[in-house]
User: Fold this.
Amino acid sequence: MSEDTPLLLRRRALTPPELDAIPWMHLLSPSEHERAASDLKISEARPGEYVCRVGRPVTYWIGVVDGLLKMSTSDANGKTMTYTGVPPGGWFGEGTALKREAYRYNIQALRKSRVAGLHVDTFHWLLDHSIAFNRFVMNHLNERLGQFIALREIDRMTSPDARVARSLAALFNPVLYPVLHPGEGEVLRITQQELAYLVGLSRQRVNEALTTLQARSIIRVEYGGLRVLSLEALRSAVFEKKNGL
DNA sequence: TCATTAAATTGTT
DNA sequence: AACAATTTAATGA
Assistant:
């Protein structure tokens, strides 16, 4: 396939390990599992490529198998607002899929990512047949709602340091992103550049923020990633405008 | 397995 | 935005 083949045309069936990486698949009965597995498609998104755009009709409920995506919208003035990053194990679009409406945000790959899609019809079929699946989707919706509410607060009143901290904390949400193993001390593979795109700051500023967080022993910065030492501190970190505390 | 080189990422200005 | 320094990944003997 050529370089610029649209994402949707580059899809294929999932391999067993890929199926295994999908958190809700384990909740299904054998017959449900089989139906979902035969419907799921996966394709690879290159960095910067759009996985879905605002306004497009929802045909798939989409999840990240591998890589990292960014969820954002543009307001009336064209200013971009980033909601959150979507790491492996994260699924999105359930709200709009439920109502069969159009996507409300843009989803863009920050790095080379493998993205799986479940057709809306199958999504609805699972809702009609599996209680466990319903519970999963409900938890997911509820948790994302909480995340969005928290974001409002972050976006208007907190310092860059705090924004970086909370964005990081959001990536460790155990309900939305179970595959990440949100255990403290685990390495999160994310570059400072990727984090910058995610938070909407310059890489320099992110670098500065990470240094501050490290100085407080909240995280440890490593090459190509970082470790969270205290998720609690990351979530509740409060910063002054200028000189530290 | 080691050494060399290219590429990616970070730290600074 | 540009640069140098550092780390990793890739290559081949």
User: Anything to note?
Assistant: The two ends of chain A are 55 Å apart (CA to CA). The domain at 157-235 of chain A is CATH 1.10.10.10 (Arc Repressor Mutant, subunit A). Residues 53 and 106 of chain A are 4 Å apart (CA to CA). Residues 204, 223-224 of chain A lie near DNA strand C (CB under 10 Å from a C1').
